[in-house]
Amino acid sequence: MLTIKNLQASIEDKAILKGIHLSIKPGEVHAIMGPNGSGKSTLANVLAGREEYQITAGTMHYQGIDLSTLTADERAHLGLFLSFQYPVEIPGVSNLYLLKSALNAKRKHMGLEEIDAIDFLSIVREKMKLLHMDDSYLYRDVNSGFSGGEKKRNEILQLLLLEPSLCILDETDSGLDIDALRIVAEGINLMRNEKRSILLITHYQRLLDYIKPDVVHILSEGKIVAEGDYTLATQLEAEGYEPFLQKKTGG
Amino acid sequence: MISQSLFAACAVLPGWDKHLRLDAWQNWQTMPLPTIRDEAWKYTNLARLEKTIFIKPATTPSSLTLNDIPLTIPEDRFCFINGSFNPALSAPLNAESYLLSQRAWPSIPKKQQTPVSYFERLNAAMLSDGLYLDIKKNSNNPIYLVLLQDKTAEFSTHHLRHRIKVHAGIKSEIVIVDWGLADTTSLTTYVIDIELSEGAELNCIHLKKAGTQGYHIRQTHAHLAKNSHLNHFNFDFGAKLSRNEISAWLQGEHAACQLNGLALARAQDHIDNQTKIGHLAPKTNSLEQYRGIIDDKACHIFHGHVLIDAHAPDSIANQQNKNILLTSTGQAYAEPQLEIYNQNVQCIHGATVGDIDAEALFYLRSRGLSDEIARQLLIFGFARSILETIHDKSLQSELALWIKTHLALDSELILDLYREDDHEDIN
Ligand SMILES: Nc1ncnc2c1ncn2[C@@H]1O[C@H](COP(=O)(O)OP(=O)(O)O)[C@@H](O)[C@H]1O
Ligand SMILES: [Mg+2]
């Protein structure tokens, strides 16, 4: 599904990713954990196609395609989805319009006709029900004046609707209270299947209690410094990042 | 700019004070043209205007019809063509109204008689016509005041003055449309006095498209009594030189005003918005939202002066100005000016000038929208946030179409945007 080799990226000549290796197979859930500023969001943004970052070395392939040759919208059409750490407010554009345009853009790429307005509404309402969102979300401007938790829910709504093959979730858990976390995690779990891959970026272990990852990576200063199964996250929760960071400097 | 003989050729309106007119002319002649050394004109150079020779006064009405403007003008309207009142296109009004050219206005309060500024003096001297609206009854429908210019207005000057009085406790809406149908070189001055009595409410929507060669200078003065409320909307679609000055004086307790504006400047357009809000009484409230979208080599100026008097405790003022520059050759100047003489007030202001928001662009593209569509959505969304502050839905969608055409946005996109939101009404 996703193969990243020696990925290095910088912004304004400041190196941020310093050689990332990562491979995710279809059906797998991977978690990336790491302290603030370690480069987690940068990795997510580079994968999604944010042009401000320069890729200085390495490769990233998604379903065998070199991602660096594709624009952000082309990556989205091929089934890559990034749930933003800070979803952007877009005043003047309704949520409904964005949801429908996003879905139609993908359908167009797949050679399908635009979705019928009534069908669309019934599909989107069904997904909203899963996330305990009421109808008013549709008619509000995209993320405008949404609380932190509402924004995150809105990201997951888009995820459920677009049914991507590779879901990158950047700190979807932050800003959610415990009930919202459970609802959002259930939404994500619904998406789990043998074909779809999920990359969970998180700061804390608590999301991983709901969505159990197959592999956990620890990122520090732009490099993966430790890898393991789910127990790595538990260990991290108990001992903090310190031992892992020291291990890195030690060798 | 304007010769003695053009002044002499100007019809003397029966309703206008002859002495005032002559005084204004003499005072105008002795007054120097404002230059960029004057603080209030530092970004707007009038040298080109000064060199332009205007040769015609307001002309006789042409054969225009209302179908010539791409906007639905409902009943309850007053139409002026090339500066002159046109009875054929006008339709009865609910409100009591008096035309300067037909009969005397009720007398103007003394302190408003003497024109002070350069263009007000010119306006008083050369007055083409004007309307006094005396609004004593509530009305559900807006009153339209329309000024059209066609190609016969080449090198002419038009000067209008309206006075709008809304009586105590009355609610009203006025839409003022200035539309240049051709890109004629012409000069229009406009003076509008608004008086809101206690508890009165007025929505005043001003739409202007003056043509690429038009000079259009407007001064609006509003006086608000206790508990009265003014919502003023200024949509400017550009001109060679468009200057909109508005002053709102909150004179009575709890008086409130909202001044919103949208400037869409492209090609070589120059739009200069100068606002002044005076909080003169306790618990007065003002909200100001001005936005500019600047393309090509165009320019938008926003100067927002907020004065809070010592006698205006517990007042709230909020001023926001945002500009998007679509090119590196466009210019935007955002200047807040706060003058506060009372400590017990809340005053918020913010001004930005920038490109299309890169974060928002990436967000939309990451959802599969093309660069082109994403940009258009962001531009339109930026304009729409102001558009939606007017509550009249049908006017809103007409204006959306103007904006779409003006910014060369994709029709389908904008229609879709509205179609989607219409579902809300169905559900
Ligand atoms: N757009 C940017 N401009 C400048 N520096 C950036 C930018 N984005 C990220 N950085 C820097 O890169 C480093 C990693 O940031 P980020 O990827 O957001 O970390 P994380 O998500 O792990 O907290 C930080 O030092 C941050 O300041
Ligand atoms: Mg981050």
Structural description of this entry:
- The complex is a heterodimer of chains A (251) and B (427).
- Chain A has 251 residues and is of the alpha/beta class.
- In chain A, the strands form 3 sheets. Chain A has a 6-stranded mixed β-sheet, with helices on both faces. Chain A has a 4-stranded antiparallel β-sheet with strand order 2-1-4-5, with helices on one face. In chain A, strands 7-8 form a two-stranded antiparallel ribbon.
- Chain A has a single domain (2-250), classed as Rossmann fold, CATH 3.40.50.
- Chain A is built from 10 helices and 12 strands.
- Chain A is 40% helix and 28% strand.
- The radius of gyration of chain B is 21 Å and the shape is globular.
- In chain B, 48% of the residues are buried.
- Chain B is an alpha/beta fold and 427 residues long.
- Chain B has helices spanning 4-9, 18-30, 47-51, 118-126, 358-366, 371-387, 393-406, 411-426, and strands at 77-81, 84-85, 96-99, 129-135, 143-149, 156-166, 171-180, 186-196, 201-209, 211-224, 229-236, 239-250, 256-265, 270-279, 285-294, 299-308, 316-325, 331-340, 346-354.
- Chain B has 8 helices and 19 strands.
- Chain B folds into 2 domains: 4-252, no CATH class; 358-427, no CATH class.
- Helix content of chain B is 21%, strand content 40%.
- Chain B has a 10-stranded mixed β-sheet with strand order 2-1-5-7-9-11-13-15-17-19, covered by helices on one side. Chain B has a 9-stranded mixed β-sheet with strand order 3-4-6-8-10-12-14-16-18, covered by helices on one side.
- Classes of the chains: A alpha/beta (251), B alpha/beta (427).
- The complex binds adenosine-5'-diphosphate and magnesium ion.
- Magnesium ion is lined by residues 40-41, 85, 171 of chain A.
